[in-house]
Amino acid sequence: MPHLVVIADIIASRQLPDRARVQRRLRESLAARNAAHAEGDLLSPYTLTLGDELQAVPARAQHVFRDLLQVAADLAPAELRFALGLGSIDTTINPDQAIGMDGSAFHLARDGIDRLKDEGGHCRVEGLASVAADLVNHGLALAFGRLAGARGSRLPLTVGLLSAESIADIAARLDRTEQTLYKTARTADLYALVGFLQAVETLLDEQLGAGASLVADGP
């Protein structure tokens, strides 16, 4: 059966003037993400692996973009790139840390990170068959391009919408007016963006649960 692997890293981390502080914030953000999940949501938790890189094996794709964008919001203005690999895990899954595992899902996620480094961009999925992959990755390029480098409330607002929070609740949490957040959501097309990300999660979950009509044959 296929699994989903997430790999992410901080873009140009060695050039950050406060790299140690950003790494500390990343550790704190990952700990918060793990604590927010119910038992069984993560087959292998969000784990800091190389100082500036993280890995995880979620049990399903639902809420994965909420998690990734929350980490991005926690680290802003530092930026991250995210790759999701859909494939096999050939070793025993480590339930304590996302290390010491192997399989095509990891290889594909790593290929995605390498491609993002070469071509630019902030998020892609590897392991879907060609037509689905093109649709998903062009859409992710547009969606994450809209969010990359965003200032103000755009990123946390998107996270709130992905969490099904009301604008009123998000406004209270961010200490913003509802009118301001409604304007931001409309101007940045955040409702359509959130709908697209949730559709991608549904597509990935269909492949994880039902086998693989849209999964590629190999890396």
State the main characteristics:
single chain, 219 residues, alpha+beta, five-stranded mixed beta sheet, 8 helices, globular
What does this structure look like?
The protein has 219 residues and is an alpha+beta fold. It has eight helices and five strands; from the N terminus they run βαββαβαβααααα. It has helices at 19-36, 64-75, 104-119, 130-147, 154-162, 167-174, 178-187, 190-210, and strands at 3-10, 42-48, 53-58, 80-87, 123-126. Strands 2-3-1-4-5 form a five-stranded mixed sheet, sandwiched between helices. The radius of gyration is 17 Å and the shape is globular. The mean pLDDT is 92.
Task: Reconstruct the topology from this structure.
Blueprint lengths: L2 E8 L8 H18 L5 E7 L4 E6 L5 H12 L4 E8 L16 H16 L3 E4 L3 H18 L6 H9 L4 H8 L3 H10 L2 H21 L9
Helix pairs in contact: 1-2, 2-5, 4-8, 5-8
DSSP helix count?
Answer: 8
Summing up helix and strand content along with how strands pair, one would put the structural category as: alpha+beta
Q: Give the topology string: H per helix, E per strand.
A: EHEEHEHEHHHHH
The proportion of residues forming helix, as a percent range, comes to 40-55%
Low-confidence stretches: none
How many strands appear in the DSSP assignment? 5
- Rg (C-alpha, Å): 17 Å
Proportion of residues in β-strands: 15-25%
Sheet with most strands: 5 strands, mixed
Separation of the first and last Cα atoms: 15 Å
Q: What average pLDDT do the residues reach? A: 92
